[in-house]
């Protein structure tokens, strides 16, 4: 549990992490090279690799290319059980606790369990919560589950608490990729105050100021995908904003 311990330790010491989300379907070897170079320069903490609709077979190649070029940990963020690659460092083992679709709560896990175990990946049990992002996102459609309404802070809080008490080590609140409305800070604050697990926030974050405010509200990890796909140079500013929000001085 090397990476999980690292995340938990970062949380204990008030350090915030920046994660760049890479969708293997939207990158080629040139763009991966560029993303890695910018991420190294900006001191990005993690890569999440995955997406709701990964159809290409180059998940393995994409991860191998990243790993060959840097030592930033690669964590799988799978949209389906087929998105497992032994070349990654860890796997967000997602259970969609905000929804009531049994397949995404436990069904797909049962089917893929032997395969996931055999992968040798570090498994990170993650309570995955989709929050309404203002318009249907791919994840809200594909999951066939109702997202938590954006202003129902208590529901989000109770869902995260229940997930943690069920043993989930991370809580990931996601407004969905490209969400019109990212998760509001009041909800983040409410959830963060009631759990001890590191809190991951993503979906529709496009400006560094919003990422900073999310961290101040209690987010431990900020995930950005879409905005970086559109403008990779945003990596540097995002990273600086997130790291500057630490409650203690960061060294390196
Ligand atoms: C989506 O949380 C991630 O699952 C990131 O969302 O692509 O909107 O940054 P964006």
| Head-to-tail CA distance between termini | 23 Å
The number of helical elements comes to: 10
- What do we call the CATH homologous superfamily? FMN-linked oxidoreductases
CATH architecture classification name: Alpha-Beta Barrel
Number of domains: 1
Mean pLDDT level:
95
Report the top-level CATH class. Answer: Alpha Beta
Give the C-alpha Rg: 17 Å
Cofactors, ions, other ligands: SN-glycerol-1-phosphate
Number of strands: 8
- H and E string: HEHEHEEHEHHEHEHEHH
Low-confidence stretches: none
How much β-strand is present in the residues? 15-25%
Sum up the overall morphology in one term.
Answer: globular
Structural class: alpha/beta
For the sheet with most strands, the description reads: 8 strands, parallel, barrel
Q: Write down the CATH topology.
A: TIM Barrel
Helical content stands at 40-55%
* Biggest sheet: strand arrangement: 1-2-3-4-5-6-7-8
Properties at a glance:
single chain; 252 residues; alpha/beta; TIM Barrel; 8 strands; globular; binds SN-glycerol-1-phosphate
Describe the structure.
42% of the residues lie in helices and 17% in strands. The protein has a single domain (2-244), classed as FMN-linked oxidoreductases (TIM Barrel, Alpha-Beta Barrel), CATH 3.20.20. It has 252 residues and is α/β, with parallel strands linked by helices. The mean pLDDT is 95. The chain has helices at 2-12, 29-42, 59-69, 102-118, 138-142, 153-165, 185-194, 208-217, 226-230, 234-244, and strands spanning 17-22, 46-49, 74-76, 90-96, 122-130, 170-174, 199-202, 221-224. It binds SN-glycerol-1-phosphate (1GP). The site of SN-glycerol-1-phosphate has 14 residues, from strand 8 and helix 9.
């Amino acid at each position: 549990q090397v990476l999980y311990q690292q995340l938990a330790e970062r949380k204990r010491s008030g350090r915030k992490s920046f994660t760049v989300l890479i969708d293997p379907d939207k990158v080629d070897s040139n763009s991966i090279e560029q993303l890695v170079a910018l991420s190294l320069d900006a001191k990005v903490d993690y890569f999440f690799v995955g997406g709701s609709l990964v159809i290409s077979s180059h998940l393995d190649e994409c991860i191998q290319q990243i790993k060959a070029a840097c030592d930033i940990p690669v964590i799988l963020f799978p949209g389906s059980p087929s998105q497992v690659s032994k070349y990654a460092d860890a796997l967000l083992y997602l259970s969609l606790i905000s929804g009531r679709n049994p397949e995404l709560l436990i069904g797909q896990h049962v089917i893929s369990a032997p395969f996931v175990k055999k992968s040798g990946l570090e498994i990170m049990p993650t309570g995955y919560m989709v929050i309404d992002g203002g318009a249907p996102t791919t994840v809200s459609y594909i999951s066939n589950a109702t997202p938590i309404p954006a202003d129902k802070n208590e529901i989000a809080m109770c869902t995260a608490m229940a997930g943690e008490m069920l043993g989930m080590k991370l809580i990931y609140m996601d407004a969905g990729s490209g969400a019109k409305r990212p998760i509001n800070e009041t909800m983040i604050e409410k959830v963060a105050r009631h759990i001890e697990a590191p809190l991951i926030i993503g979906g529709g974050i496009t400006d560094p100021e919003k990422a900073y405010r999310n961290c101040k509200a209690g987010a431990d990890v900020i995930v950005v995908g879409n905005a970086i796909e559109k403008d990779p140079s945003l990596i540097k500013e995002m990273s600086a904003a997130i790291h500057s929000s630490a409650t203690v001085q960061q060294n390196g």
